[in-house]
Design a protein that fits this description.
Elements: H1 2-7, H2 20-72, H3 81-93, E1 98-106, E2 121-130, H4 133-137, E3 144-153
Antiparallel strand pairs: 1-2, 2-3
Helix pairs in contact: 2-3
């Protein structure tokens, strides 16, 4: 009876021969591992795209809020502290630090502090560095610089 099992390719109790079914199971495990690895990498990629889009949306929202404040502030100056702190606070609330200080400037050169500002174009910009999780895992610290800018008319 053991000889008949041996001829059919089924393993015996002493484990001397492996059958086709155990070889197929080994191949299936290797294929499943490869497929699972691809799915995990795809999932991590989708998560990174989500993280970078969330960071960019937070940045553009903070710059828009700063531009709104700059557009209605009657005593606005280049580098206005209230506007810059508003942008920095919104970024900090979202857990993001600005890569460089936000900027507030006028589109026209030579705007003096006592000049009437109504109708002047005001530029508000800020930037953040996004660190992908993949670079953190492998010890690389190459950030992706994200920049947002809004130009608004002073009211």
């Amino acid at each position: 009876q053991i000889k008949a099992l041996h001829d059919m390719g089924i393993s015996t109790s002493d484990g001397k021969q492996r059958g086709r079914s155990s070889r197929r199971a080994g191949v299936a495990i290797i294929e499943a591992t490869g497929g699972l690895l691809v799915l995990i990498l795809l999932l991590l990629g989708v998560m990174e795209v989500g993280r970078v889009s969330m960071t960019y949306n937070l940045l553009t929202r903070a710059v828009r809020e700063g531009a709104r404040l700059a557009a209605i502030k009657p005593d606005l100056t280049t580098g206005d502290f209230a506007v810059l702190s508003r942008i920095s606070n919104l970024l900090a609330d979202g857990g993001v630090a600005a890569a460089e200080p936000p900027e507030v400037s006028f589109m026209r050169e030579g705007v003096e502090p006592n000049d009437p500002l109504r109708g002047e174009m005001v530029r508000v910009s800020a930037g953040v560095d996004f660190f992908p999780a993949v670079s953190m895992v492998f010890g690389s610290s190459m950030p992706i610089h994200l920049q947002a800018q809004v130009i608004a008319r002073h009211e």
